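Whiteboard transcription, Tuesday session. T.W. wrote the structure tokens on the left side:
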């Protein structure tokens, strides 16, 4: 094998990082493969006006605005789709597979929505689909699930999968500033997009959880069927109360196998300070996995950024190139299972967990009694009442923690509470995660 030709579609942060890693690590890559990876074509709609400097590192590569021209080139064996989204990206991937090209993608939305169907096409065409960069940036979590702990049976996993939200929450905890101020800073630092909804409303983490669950459990889960809640309502006061409870607040994505099926959730939760996940700070990501036999494993690293994600893309390019070089492409499913079973997640409201209920009220006598009566009506037992002093009595935040109860009972109780005239907003209900690995 003299070389493998690569085509890069998309020159945003990930595409630029991939080009730099391919250039700076060229000698190492060739030493590991036994042959070089050569960038033969680069595609971007702005290639003529705003090509990043990384494109100049590959002067021999064709520059084009038309991805079809890239896909059609006979010297391109592997196409890296790095444009994102589910419309043009899907068309690019399908066209590449149809043309007999293997595909590497960092596209979490596309893989979460259509990954199984795209893999079936790739397998039928005897080409490879690789997707490590689609989840948790530079953390090789999919490879770990597919190969490193493939011999175990995963029972549960919980991850911090969105670096933007984690940066916001950990800075809120550290500085005591509201979400809006820290979000603006995250946008200035490049951690958050101008429209941050995918990050702070949980949809980015939801797509990644769908991929993780497919790989860990062999089940295809439509992302829209996963319950999701964002962090918009979290404030510094929640960290104050969480600290009193020995917890912190993180946006977590979790999947647990149980007798009634697979339980999935994305949303803010209180996690104990003595757990490993509580120590994940800033824009880092982490995934904790519990296997039936191997028990706890933990994966930690940069969840985004040009260089870490570029490394993941290049690692996939190398894996595909090895299979092409050995004339055995298309052999291994990227989901670790030969076929995914269609999955309807277990009912979201049936799981019993302790909960943290945070209220904002106009203070007056009888508030605790009224709230406790509603909780009792829904067979929810009060654990503790917490109230920080020195707050405005016209906008008083306090917390009730409750014993383990079904989430649908919690939701019904808080909906009923929302009609009480002393409440300034709907109660915030956060689960207290249990069973996570401690330090």
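and on the right, the sequence the group agreed on:
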């Amino acid at each position: 094998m003299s070389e493998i030709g690569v085509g890069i579609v998309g020159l945003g942060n990930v595409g630029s990082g991939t080009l730099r890693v391919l250039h700076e690590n060229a000698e190492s890559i060739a030493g590991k493969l036994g042959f070089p990876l050569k960038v033969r074509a680069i595609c971007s709609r702005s290639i003529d006006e705003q090509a990043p400097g990384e494109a100049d590192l590959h002067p021999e590569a064709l520059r084009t605005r038309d991805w079809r021209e890239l896909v059609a080139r006979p010297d391109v064996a592997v196409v890296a789709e790095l444009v994102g989204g589910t419309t043009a990206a899907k068309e690019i991937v399908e066209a590449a597979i149809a043309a007999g090209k293997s595909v590497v993608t960092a596209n979490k939305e596309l893989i979460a929505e259509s990954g199984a169907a795209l893999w079936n096409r790739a397998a039928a065409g005897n080409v490879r689909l690789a997707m490590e960069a689609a989840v948790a940036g530079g953390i090789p979590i999919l490879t770990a699930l597919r190969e490193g702990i493939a011999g175990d049976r995963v029972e549960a996993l919980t991850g911090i999968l969105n670096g933007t939200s984690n940066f916001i929450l950990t800075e809120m905890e550290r500085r005591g500033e509201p979400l809006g101020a820290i979000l603006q800073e995250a946008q200035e630092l490049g951690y958050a997009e101008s429209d941050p909804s995918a990050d702070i409303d949980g949809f980015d983490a939801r797509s990644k959880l769908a991929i993780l669950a497919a790989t860990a459990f062999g089940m295809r889960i439509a992302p829209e069927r996963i319950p999701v809640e964002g962090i918009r309502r979290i404030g510094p006061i929640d960290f104050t109360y969480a600290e009193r409870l020995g917890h912190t607040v993180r946006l977590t994505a979790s999947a647990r196998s149980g007798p009634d099926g697979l339980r999935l959730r994305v949303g803010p939760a209180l996690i104990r300070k003595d757990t490993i996940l509580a120590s994940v700070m800033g824009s880092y990501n982490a995934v904790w996995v519990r296997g039936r036999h191997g028990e706890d494993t933990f994966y930690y690293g940069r969840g985004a950024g040009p260089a870490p994600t570029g490394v993941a893309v290049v690692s996939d390019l190398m894996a595909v190139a090895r299979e092409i070089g050995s004339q055995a492409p298309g052999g291994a499913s990227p989901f670790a299972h030969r076929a995914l079973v269609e999955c309807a997640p277990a009912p979201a409201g049936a799981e019993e967990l302790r909960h943290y209920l945070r209220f904002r009220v106009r203070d007056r006598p009888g508030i605790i009694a009224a709230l406790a009566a509603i909780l009792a009506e829904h067979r929810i037992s009060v654990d503790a009442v917490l109230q920080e002093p020195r707050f405005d009595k016209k906008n008083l935040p306090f917390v009730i923690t409750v014993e383990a109860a079904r989430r649908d009972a919690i939701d019904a109780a808080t909906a009923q509470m929302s009609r009480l005239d002393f409440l300034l907003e709907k109660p915030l209900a956060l689960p207290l995660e249990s069973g996570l690995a401690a330090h």
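Someone added at the bottom: The radius of gyration is 24 Å.
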